[in-house]
Design goal:
Blueprint: E1 8-12, H1 16-27, E2 31-35, H2 41-47, E3 50-52, H3 55-59, E4 65-68, H4 75-80, E5 92-95, H5 101-110, E6 116-122, E7 137-144, H6 148-160, E8 164-167, H7 170-193, H8 204-217, H9 221-229, H10 234-261
Parallel strand pairs: 1-2, 1-4, 2-3, 4-5, 5-6, 7-8
Antiparallel strand pairs: 6-7
Helix pairs in contact: 7-8, 7-10
Length: 262
Amino acid sequence: MSSTKSLRIGMIGFGPFAQFLAKTMIRQGHIITATSRSDYTHLCSQLGISFFRDASAFLESGNDVILLTTSILSLSQVIKALPLESLKQPTLFVDVLSVKEHPRDLMLQVLPHDSDVLCTHPMFGPESGKDGWKDLPLMFDKVRIRNEAACSDFLQVFATEGCKMMEMSCEEHDEFSARSQFLTHTVGRVLAEMEVEPTPIDTKGFQKLVQVKESTSRDSFDLFSGLFVHNRFAQQQLRNLELALASIKQRLESRSEELEQS
């Protein structure tokens, strides 16, 4: 099933997540171009994607949409280094990062004023989306949209696959994400530091904890630190976790002292 219009979608950064998105977009009939600090010429050739080593040539190539698929930590450096004077026409810029206020602010600061800005976060990845995207959430915020048709055509990429389309502000997203995604990653990293492993007598609850540790450990520490550094709500969640652990420890020690004295 294809979306309503074939788009020329340019990707800046072509790591695993960009490759994952590109395969579905190609299947839908979209034309994909890419540029990246690493050389993906061979892989792009295999996928039928035009890869540009030169960023100016990439921006001159007439993309309908430019998709920012860099890491959270590298976005600022990458976007500020773009030779934006090479753009031939007003273009829709879209990010797919796991934090939202940070890329929104950067795009509004750096991009030409006639460029449209759409912030999105596909709440899935190569593992959770390997059997299709149906019912998986796609968060989006129409930050600065003049060309509604182009924006709608791009969002249709996800709607066509059956994604749960969730429109919310970047601020709302980051607040929710700090409570869910960042907290999950933090707990998983703590369990990894403790070298938690399965035992012969695991309960179902413990098996789920091991799964959390394993799934979060598959993601890079750069992603995890990006969730903290560039989400202003994450610091409070980390403090909340520390306070909660201290409170539980205090209650346990108090109970232990009461039992010793009885």
